[in-house]
Structure prediction request, 341 residues.
Amino acid sequence: MISTLLAWTLATCVITCSVGCRAISQYGESKQSIAARRLSRQGLEAMHAGQWDVAEDLFSDALNLTATDDRAHWGLAESLWQRGEKQTALQHMEEAVRLSASDPRLMRRLGKMYLDLDRVADADRQSVAALHADRQSAEVWGLRGDCLVKLGDLDGALAAYHQALALQPDYPDVQLEIAELYRQQGRYDRLLATIDRLQDTIGDRDVCPARAHMLRGIALHQLQRYGDAQRCFQDAIASDPNNPEPHLHLASLLLEQGDAQSARGPLQQAIALSPQSPSAIALAQQVRGVAESAERDFAPGLPGPESPTHGATGMSRTPNFAPRTSSPTKVSERPGAPAQR
Prediction:
């Protein structure tokens, strides 16, 4: 009897001690988790302030306390990505997705990282999985469109982008991608309508993306609204002077109008920015050909193309072309213009 009682007493003590130890352990883990969350919040504040080095340290400290904080993995991934450690950043983002039970927002970000690293198949799988988790996210539909563009399915990409706009009508990144697809398809009326809506959304012409100015200029050029097109290319150059593309488009427009002299300035800028550009080299040959032809056509005794009446040699003179239309009316304001799709 005494031995039985003693055995029960000992068993009770063991169980009590075991439960107590687990409770203490769980309490300790809880304190660590709270501290890790606090560090992650501070890391997010540092990220938003642009203090990426501080943010990286805070997220690393959070993960030293607990390796199961998905927010710390996400924040560290963003910090590492910011300073070019993209492979390590990808590993942390993959872990963040796993720990978050496949949060669609984190899945979308992981998909964008895959795309930036040209891992198209991985990005495609991530976009499909994110859509299964949340079909009401404009950002996820935008990612789906980006993947389909990479896969060459332009019609599917347009459908995905339009779904994104149906959920979030003012979405500049997606509007620019739609405009680019319309350019590739030669649908310049649609391109112009899309950029016009984007500019209406932004409101301030000075903060409109340089790419939007350039795409609008391309559409206007194709629609033979040369004066408006020239101004758009000039706006694109002012917004992003280090991009050779708007310089090339402006030079091409001027050359098409027969002003090889004025085309030289933007062409020289484009070649300086991208000396090996095949487009710039080909356009330079055209400019030389036009100039040589003009010189041969001048009769003896008449002023040549480089006389003072035509401007100094090699200097750019951008004329003010009169637009074909009376005013730069938006496509969406013209009778019978197609609605944006």
